[in-house]
Design brief:
The chain is mainly alpha-helical and 405 residues long. It has one domain (2-197, 205-404). The chain has 21 helices and no strands.
């Protein structure tokens, strides 16, 4: 009971400070301190772990990736690439509203931390047809960017969870594909209900020229995908190569290039990225995440509760996909099954964890996208709750129908 109250205190403190519009980086630092105090982590250990996490190779690599993503996004926007993509889509997509969703969903096929930032300028460009609030632009970019993570086999969290449970990734991807469809459908329903239909008078029939324009307008993104998956180059170096090559082929004044560099080197975003990793490290080393696993016994109905509570809590607290997969799933293997894993139980645990990540204020994609559009997180959450509820409701319904009845 004491452990549960401590975990709830950490969660409520996180939500309360966000509601007060306290800077998210400061919120994570304060919540890390609260976690250390509640779980009696010695001050010396706290500062050592926090300092280590801030300069850890993983953190520095992550910061580098975020900066390069920002640079590439700003560069493509300044070079007119996103306008070119939107213009090409307008030529053959008859419902203009789909242009608010398709680019972000397409970019979502590229598993990259803070990847939603790459689609944000495209949504900004496409949204000029309507008067959309910052919260709506944040929601549309954020939601469609993440519809693939239930089934796209390139995501590390899906690979990790499948490996821990001993299930072939192809089987996991196929069985969870309906959740990608459900997420996309929920997002489109909300999009179509809120954004009024305006016939795209520019649309005609799809031509090879427009199809090629759509892809070549964002060719540096394709280059990143090819280097990452075909040549197995680490994401940082793939992005760096894409930035360098695009810089060589795109004509742009030196002054404008330097302005893009300065805009990409945002101290606020760098600190936010670092504080996310510090918060994650304190949760791990203070014993807080281990304590989550002791709240519920892994048998009977308690095991079902644990299938939700463990991945959801870890996903919500950290905002990191790999965290709920790597930390919760090893404990959940006895419930899911060692020799013959239960795909329904696996699916429910995975969706629970990812729903926690989607709602987490510590999720970099959410934090950085909201910051890009200058959106109030409270307004974004109002839009997120319905589609998140639909996805989780589908997982819960499947669990009830196929395992609890």
């Amino acid at each position: 009971m004491i452990i549960l109250l401590k975990i709830l205190a950490i969660i409520f403190a996180l939500l309360f400070l966000v509601k007060l519009k306290v800077d998210l980086g400061l919120v994570l630092v304060l919540d890390a301190v609260l976690t250390a105090v509640l779980f009696r982590m010695p001050a010396a250990d706290f500062f050592r772990q926090a300092g280590s996490a801030a300069v850890d190779a993983e953190t520095l690599d992550l910061i580098g990736i975020v900066i390069l993503v920002l640079y590439l996004g700003h560069f493509l926007h300044a070079g007119g690439h996103f306008k070119e993509m939107v213009a090409a889509l307008k030529n053959y997509i008859r419902d203009a509203r789909l242009i608010l969703a398709i680019p972000s969903a397409f970019i979502g096929l590229l598993p990259m931390t803070a990847g939603a930032m790459m689609g944000a300028p495209i949504v900004e460009e496409a949204a000029r047809r309507w008067t959309l609030s910052p919260a709506w632009k944040t929601f549309l970019n954020y939601w469609f960017r993440h519809i693939w993570e239930y089934s796209w086999p390139m995501y590390v969290n899906l690979i990790m969870a499948a490996a821990i449970a001993g299930i072939p990734i192809a089987r996991v991807s196929l069985s969870q594909l309906p959740f990608t469809v459900i997420a996309a459908s929920a997002g489109l329903v909300i999009l179509f209900r809120h954004v009024p239909f305006t016939p795209n008078e520019e649309a005609s029939r799809l031509t090879l020229r427009d199809f090629i324009r759509t892809f070549t307008s964002i060719w540096p993104i394709f280059l990143t995908i090819i280097l990452t998956f075909a040549f197995r180059i680490p994401m940082f170096w793939a992005l760096a190569a894409a930035c360098v090559v695009s810089g060589l082929f795109v004509k742009m004044p030196a002054v404008e290039r330097w302005a893009i560099v300065r805009k990409s080197l945002s101290l606020k975003i760098i600190l936010l990225t670092a504080t996310v990793m510090v918060f994650k490290r304190i949760l791990e080393t203070s014993g807080a995440l281990d304590a989550v696993m002791t709240i519920v016994k892994p048998d009977g109905i308690s095991g079902i509760v644990l299938l939700f509570a463990a991945p959801f809590t870890i996903g919500f607290l950290t905002g990191v996909n790999q965290a709920f997969a790597g930390i919760a799933f090893p404990l959940l293997v006895p419930i899911i099954g060692r020799t013959h894993p239960d795909m329904i139980l696996f699916m429910f645990a995975y969706v629970s964890g990812f729903v926690g990540v989607l709602l987490s204020p510590a999720h970099l994609c959410l934090a950085l996208t909201a910051d890009y559009f200058k959106a109030d997180l409270r307004d974004v959450y109002k839009l997120l709750l319905a589609p998140v509820g639909v996805v989780f409701g589908a997982a819960l319904l499947a669990l009830v129908l196929f395992r609890l009845i």
